[in-house]
Design the sequence.
DNA sequence: GTTAGCACTCATTAAACGAGAGTGCTAATT
DNA sequence: AATTAGCACTCTCGTTTAATGAGTGCTAAC
C-alpha cells in the first residue's frame, strides 16, 4: 500500500513544518505555506488517510497533525535528501577539530562539544572499544628502587603505561625476567581474554625474587588492562535540551538527565549499536521511547571503532544532523589514520533500523 | 542587639521546621510542635521582631515565615550542634571508601558519589592542585626505535608518564643526554613556573641529534605538565536536585545544570576557597545566590590539598552535612597519608564566611 | 475528484469565587 | 508589662465557568 506522490508531499510538508515549529500543523497552514495547488479540504482528506495508515497522529480532535515515529522512519529512509553543510559548520569542524593521535581523548571530547554546539542537542562521544586488541609485548621499566613503570603495548599500536610503587625493592634481573615471561604468556591474546582468564599462576615463579615481584605487579597489571578496555564516554551539551519545547516538563528533563548519570549502562547500550550512521526513532529504542538517537562511527587506523552520537526528541532535523555527523566522523577517521596505513575506514551511510 | 533566649528558640524551631518541610512556617504550628510554653500570638510578636531584624522573611502577607540567609548564617555559626553520624552512614563511608594511593582518581570519584548518596544533594570532588609542586627529575625511557616514555617525577612523589611517538628514530645517547639536561634545567622548579617560562631553548642543542629529539619531545613535555597541573573535577548526583521542591521550576533546574557544564570555571571558583569546612550561604556566593555551597578539604601526605563539596538550596541540613563532610575528609586524608609521614593534615572545622 | 461551507470538538486562557492558612491588631487577662 | 484570645483582613491556591479560537469532519455544490 504505497503512498501517492501527493501524500508524500503532504507528509514531507507536515514533517518539515512540525520539525521547525514543534506545534501540530493544520491543513490550512500547509496549503498556505507549501504550494501544493490544492485546497485545505483536500489536504484534510489526505491527512485523514495518512493518519489511518499510521503516519500521523492527533493529539486531540481539533488539533493539527503530528508526524508519528513511522513517518519519521519513512522520512529518514526515503524522503530525506543529504544536506550540504553550511560553510560555517564546515569551517567550524575543520578548524576546531585539530585532531592528533597523541591527544586522542582530548580530540574525542572536542568532537562531542562541537557536535552539540552545531546541532544544539545533547551529544556524546566514545573512545574505541579495544576488546579485540591483542597484546604485543609487556615491559617493566625501572624508575627507582621501589618504583617502576608497567607498559602494555597492543598489536594495534596502543600503548598504556602505569606507574607502580612496590613495598619492597626489586632487582633488575627479576624485572627483565618478569617482562619476558609476561610477554611470552600474553602475547597475541586479547585484552579481554587475558583479563578474564585467571591463569596468572603460570607466569613462572621459579625464583623467589621473581615470585614476590610478580605478586606486587600483577594487581597493577590487571587494573591497567581494565583501564585499557574501558571506553571513555564524554557527554556534552546536556543543558541544550532545556531549550526544547518537549522538555519543559520537569519530569521529562529529569528522566533525560538521569539516563546520562548512568554512564556505564549507557556505554553498554551504545556499544551494541551497529557501525555507520544509525538512526533509531522513538519506539525503536527500548528506553527513551520519545527520543531519537543517532550514532555514527569513526575509525582509528581504519580498524578500531569509536562512536559519536546525538540525542534529542524525535522531532529533529534528520537531514542536517546525519549529514553533519557523517562529515564529522569522516574528518575524525581521517585524522586518526596512521601515516602509512590505507583503507578508508568505511564510514558509510547505512541508515538502518537497529 | 542580641537575640533573647526565646527568640533563638523560635528561630531554631522555624529553621528546623522549614528545613524539614520546605514550606513557610506559621506561628500556630510552631506553638504546637515545639513546646515553648507560649501561645501562637506571642510567637507571632517575636516573629515580627525577628523579621524586622532580618532573620525571617515573608513570601507574602498571609504566609508563614521563612528563614533568611542571615538566619542560616547565625544557625551555622552559633546554634548548630555537631551531629553524630548514623551508624549506617559511618559504615557506608568506611566500607566503600577503600582508598589507595594508586587509584587516586578513582577513590576521589567514589568519595563524591558517596557524598551525594548520603546527603541526597549534588556533590563534587577535586583532585589536589599541584601548582606548588616542584620537579624532582625527568626521565626518557626507550620503547622502540620511534617510541619513548616521558616520565616526570615531582618532589612530592607524584609520577606522571606519557608515551610519545616520534616521526624519526632517536639514539640512546641522545635520550640519556636529554633526560639529564632537562632534569638539570627544571629540577626544583614548580610545574607552574616551568610551564609559564618560555625558556625552552636552553636545554642545550649542541648536538644535532639532540636538537632534533628535543624538538619532538618538548611539546609532549609541556602537554604532560599541563595535565599534571589540571585538577580533575568529578560531579555526582546532579539529578538529586530534581527531587527538591526548590527546583521544580525548569528555569531553576536549568541554571543549576548550566553552572556545572562549565567545569573549568567552576573549578577555578572552588580552588579559590579557603581550607577546612567552608559554608557559603545564598548571597554570600557571587553566583548561585539561592544556593548553599559547602566545601571541605582533604590532604595528601598531609600536604597537597584537594576539595570535596556539596551544593544545594540554602534550605539544607547544615548540621548533618557538615558533620558528614568532616568525617569523610578525615577519612580521606587518613587514607592518603604516606606510610612514613606524620602530621594530621589539619582537617579543621573552621566554619567561616568566605 | 475537488472545494466551499458550516457545525462541532476540544485545549487554552481569563475571570470569578470560595476555602484555608496565617498574619496583625486590639482588647481582655494574668 | 507581658501574654493571650478574638477577629478582621490579606493573599494563595484550587475549582468552576465562560469565552476564544484553531482545526477537524462532514455534506453538498462545483
Sequence:
Amino acid at each position: 500500500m504505497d503512498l501517492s506522490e501527493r501524500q508524500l508531499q503532504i507528509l514531507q510538508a507536515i514533517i518539515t513544518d512540525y520539525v521547525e515549529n514543534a506545534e501540530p500543523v493544520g491543513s490550512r497552514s500547509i496549503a498556505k505555506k507549501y504550494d501544493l495547488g490544492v485546497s485545505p479540504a483536500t489536504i484534510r482528506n489526505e491527512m485523514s488517510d495518512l493518519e489511518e495508515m499510521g503516519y500521523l497522529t492527533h493529539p486531540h480532535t481539533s488539533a493539527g497533525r503530528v508526524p508519528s515515529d513511522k513517518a519519521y522512519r519513512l522520512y529518514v529512509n526515503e524522503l530525506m535528501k543529504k544536506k550540504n553543510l553550511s560553510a560555517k559548520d564546515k569551517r567550524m569542524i575543520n578548524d576546531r577539530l585539530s585532531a592528533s593521535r597523541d591527544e586522542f581523548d582530548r580530540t574525542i571530547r572536542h568532537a562531542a562539544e562541537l557536535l552539540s554546539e552545531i546541532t544544539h542537542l545533547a551529544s556524546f562521544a566514545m573512545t574505541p572499544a579495544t576488546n579485540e586488541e591483542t597484546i604485543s609485548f609487556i615491559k617493566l621499566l625501572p624508575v627507582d628502587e621501589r618504583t617502576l613503570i608497567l607498559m602494555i603495548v597492543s598489536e594495534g599500536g596502543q600503548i598504556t603505561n602505569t606507574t607502580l610503587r612496590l613495598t619492597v625493592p626489586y632487582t633488575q634481573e627479576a624485572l627483565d625476567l618478569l617482562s619476558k615471561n609476561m610477554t611470552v604468556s600474553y602475547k597475541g591474546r586479547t585484552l579481554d581474554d587475558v583479563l578474564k582468564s585467571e591463569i596468572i599462576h603460570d607466569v613462572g615463579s621459579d625464583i623467589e625474587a621473581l615470585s614476590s615481584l610478580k605478586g606486587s605487579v600483577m594487581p597493577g597489571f590487571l587494573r591497567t588492562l581494565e583501564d585499557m578496555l574501558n571506553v571513555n564516554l564524554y557527554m556534552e551539551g546536556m543543558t541544550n535540551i532545556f531549550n526544547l519545547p518537549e522538555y519543559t516538563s520537569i519530569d521529562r528533563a529529569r528522566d533525560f538527565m538521569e539516563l546520562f548519570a548512568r554512564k556505564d549502562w549507557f556505554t553498554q547500550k551504545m556499544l551494541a549499536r551497529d557501525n555507520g550512521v544509525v538512526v533509531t526513532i522513538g519506539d525503536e529504542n527500548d528506553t527513551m521511547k520519545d527520543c531519537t538517537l543517532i550514532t555514527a562511527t569513526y575509525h582509528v587506523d581504519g580498524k578500531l571503532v569509536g562512536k559519536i552520537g546525538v540525542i534529542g526528541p524525535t522531532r529533529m532535523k534528520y537531514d542536517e544532523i546525519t549529514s553533519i555527523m557523517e562529515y564529522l566522523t569522516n574528518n575524525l577517521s581521517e585524522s586518526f589514520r596512521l601515516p602509512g596505513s590505507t583503507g578508508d575506514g568505511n564510514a558509510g551511510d547505512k541508515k538502518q533500523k537497529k
Observations:
- Residues 38-42, 45, 59-63 of chain B lie near DNA strand D (CB under 10 Å from a C1').
